[in-house]
Amino acid sequence: MKKLMLFCGILFFPMWGFAVQKQLQQPSDTLSDNHSLDSIVVQAHRAGTNTPVTYTEVSGYKMRKENASHSLPMMLALQPSVVATTEGGLGLGYSNFSVRGTDDTRTNVTLNGISMNDSESQKVFWVNMPSIHQFTSSVQLERGVGTSAAGSGAFGANLSIVTSSLCTTPSASATFSLGSYNTYLSSVAAATGMGKNGMHFNVVYSHGESDGYIRNAKADLNSLYTTAGWRTDKGDLSLTYIYGDQCTGITWEGISPQMYEIDRTYNIAGEYYDEQGNVHYYDNETDNYTQHHLQARYSHKFNESLEWSNTFNYTRGDGYYENYKADTKFSKYGMQAPDASVTKSDFIIQQAMLNDYYALNSALNFANNNLKASAAVSYGYYDGNHFGDVLWCKHTTVEEPFRWYKNNGLKKDFSTYARAEWNPTHKLTIFADLQYRGVSYKLDGPDKDFAVLNWKKKYNFFNPKAGFTYAPGDNSRIYASVAIAHREPSRSDIKESIKSASADKLKAEQLVDVELGYRLNTEKIAFSANLYLMEYKDQLVATGRLTDVGYVIKENIPTSYRRGVELAAAWNINRTFTLEGNLTLSQNKALDYTACVDTYDNPDNWNPLPQKEIFFKKTNLILSPEVIGMLQLRARPGCGFECSLNGKFVGKQYMDNLNTQESEVPSYFVSALNVSRNFRIGENERALNVALSIDNLFNNKYWSYGWIYQAHFADGSDAYVEKGLYAQAPVNYMLKVSYNF
User: What is the percent of the chain with per-residue pLDDT over 90, rounded to a whole number?
Assistant: First the structure.
């Protein structure tokens, strides 16, 4: 590490002081964000300057300048109200993010207007789309319900991703990165630019690999993006293919507090013992998944104001995770024991899924001086198979993979909306957005515990939104809006309710979101303040109640809320320095909440008793910090040199709704330093960029989230507590070299 710092000092600091008359310009981006024809289409499913919702936008160019080892959630970590976490301690493997305390299953994610959330879990697995920032034009994060979009209802945020589709001139780039924990990444890109006949072609390939911070947090990731298109004055036709392939070590168990103090990199996944009691680890304790996305897009421009756009999407997903299961009963996998004396054995199993997703969006978009309007229809069809195979057994021969379960999920999702922004005066914009969404969901077949999942239901949702924006001056906006959203239960919610014979009690969730905000944007200062009231009815939360076989049941609670204020500001101090920051102060509560806690007679016998019920008039929602803040200083002293120093603070939060000291996730502060230097080569736009990123700059030892299980005893003994903590990597670095042709 000392040698690396010395090298960077030699490289950068003499260059900083070297007198150069002409300052380098920002290098041209290989994937240009110049979308003249696409502009109406993009704005149709995104918030604009006068849309009364709360949002931020990040360009693809800016994301590509960040630490190359970061997944997209980690690249959004500095945005207001966002908390980003990683499962294995580094940003290259499994990662997720929450917005205003709501987890990522409640964030609606679209790619070019097509829903990317898994239809059943309602989650986006970002590791399945590695290096997506390498071919992204921009992302827009709408906090709260936001504007209507295809897919599951937004209960915390809308994340809109637009891929790059056109370079004005031929270009190419190559990027190579090397970092801590044997992390290596590479990316190559090329674009033809638009020819005289309107044809254009882009391609980006990325590869990443790492040992990860904790044991078995290894990652081997590949992605490919290609798009070919034909553009005329009146229309645009393009075909895009996105490939993502991931093989990562399993890291979802977490680490106990005791082991956290001894070895923060410990991971129990794949651990087993031989007959002599020696510990071993199964090498292929991995999660594997491959995704193929094919999108065909067509836009036709009737005149300067009216355009029709269509997108067809097909996604194929195929993957499994493999585990070594030690000392497990044969009956768990529906297998016969070889003889009466052997009831348990060691197994290697695979649990897999194979799914197909078809989606179609069609939208008519209109824009003139005082009216912007759009109407759209969207349809999605998902067919997902889930199955489990036994590959090997220690005490008997498995000739072929033995399938012990298979079930299917079939989901159809239809939505339509009409949206308009009308300017009766040049200062006032009135906004209305009406959406209908119909969902049909069916489960069929046995689950891994042999419970039969025969279930189907239809949902019909009406999601209206309205508001206004007032511009008292050219640089300021005041806005207010109210929006209603609904959300159907996820596959896991439904599965466990079926097993507890309570599926008929499971309700869809409802959210009323009120936003009131102010934005100021001048040459020197940008400032925004937003007050939000997110009022939930029948929100699904884990109460601690269990099924007969021990599965956690989520239940609808009558009333809960998330209320807070968000502040964000940026100050251009001078031509060299910019200071940015944001702060969120919130309360996230469940009202009239009853928690259920497992109860046993005593810690010696562990004879089960009826669960203990604990009533709370008001309690904190899980993993919802009341304080989130960020501060960043950027410097551009010239000569192509740029650096930034940032810090993120996440306040105290809780792993369950009991809110005991045992379930507390302590507050933490983490910082990063990014330094880069551009070099012009020749007189053209070709440029070399060398960058160093140091994460967790001050080597803070912390864990960012976790899980907890608590059991009480009738004899008054101390409660039994089991935890899984997710340790984050100490100080780590990434050195990146990029060459733009």
Answer: 76
Q: Which two tokens stand for residue 570?
A: 């940026």
Mean pLDDT computed over every residue of the chain: 89
Nearest to 529 by CA among 566, 562, 563: 566
Mean pLDDT of 674-687: 79
Place of tokens 């194929």: 316
Contact in structure between 671 and 694 (CB atoms under 8 Å): no
Res. 550 pLDDT band, cuts 50 70 90: low
Burial class of residue 606, CB neighbours in 10 A (0-12, 13-18, 19+)? exposed
Cβ neighbours for 622, distance < 8 A, ≥ 6 positions apart: 541, 542, 653, 654, 655, 656, 657
How far apart are the C-alpha atoms of 53 and 433, rounded to whole Å? 12
pLDDT at 684: 57
Name the nearest CA neighbour of 114 among 292, 316, 310.
310
- The neighbour count for residue 637, using CB atoms within 10 Å, is 14
Closest among 150, 155, 185 to 44, alpha carbons compared: 150
303: left (phi over 0), alpha (psi -120 to 50) or beta: beta
Say what the pLDDT of residue 362 is.
95
Tens digits of residue pLDDT in 322-331:
999 999 999 9
Distance (Å) of CA 725 to CA 2, 661, 708: 31, 15, 9
Closest to 612 (Cα-Cα) out of 707, 709, 714: 714
Whether pLDDT at 530 is above 80: yes
Q: Evaluate whether 672 touches 643 at the Cβ level (below 8 Å).
A: no
Nearest C-alpha neighbor of 155 from the set 117, 127, 128, 129: 117
- Residue 511 pLDDT more than 70? yes
Comparing 709 with 36, the larger pLDDT belongs to: 709
CA gap 349, 322 in Å, rounded? 6
How far is the C-alpha of 591 from the C-alpha of 612, rounded, in Å?
A: 19
Tell me the DSSP string of 13-38: HHHHHS--SSPPPPPPPSS-B--TTT
All structural domains of the chain, each given as residue ranges with its CATH number in brackets, are: 1-30+622-741 (no CATH), 36-317 (2.170.130.10), 432-572 (no CATH)
Rounded Cα distance, 80 and 64, in Å: 20
Q: Largest Cα–Cα distance of the chain, in whole Å?
A: 87
Identify residue 205 by its one-letter amino acid code: Y
Q: State the Cα–Cα distance between residues 109 and 118, nearest whole angstrom.
A: 10
pLDDT one-digit tens code per residue, 209-225: 999 999 999 999 999 99
Question: Looking at residue 130, what is its pLDDT?
Answer: 87
Q: Return phi, psi of residue 46, to 5°.
A: -135, 160
Q: Does the pLDDT of residue 12 top 70, yes or no? A: no
Confidence of residue 233 (pLDDT cuts 50, 70, 90): confident
Residue closest to 135 by CA, chosen among 37, 242, 39, 207: 242
Residue 462 has what pLDDT?
Answer: 96
* DSSP label of 729: P
Size (the chain), residues: 741
Residue 17 has pLDDT above 80, yes or no: no
Contacts with 474 (C-beta within 8 Å, 6 or more apart), sequence order: none
Residue 320: how many other CB atoms lie within 10 Å: 17
Complete edge-to-edge strand list for the sheet that includes strand 114-115 = 54-59, 136-143, 157-163, 107-111, 114-115
In terms of Cβ atoms closer than 10 Å to its own Cβ (0-12, 13-18, 19+), residue 491 is: buried
What is 398-451 written as a DSSP string?
-SS-EEEEEEEEEEEEEEEEEEEEE-SSSSEEEEEEEEEEEEEEEEESB-TTS-
- CB count, 10 Å around CB of 428? 13
Q: What is the pTM of this model?
A: 0.90
Residue-level pLDDT at 6 = 36
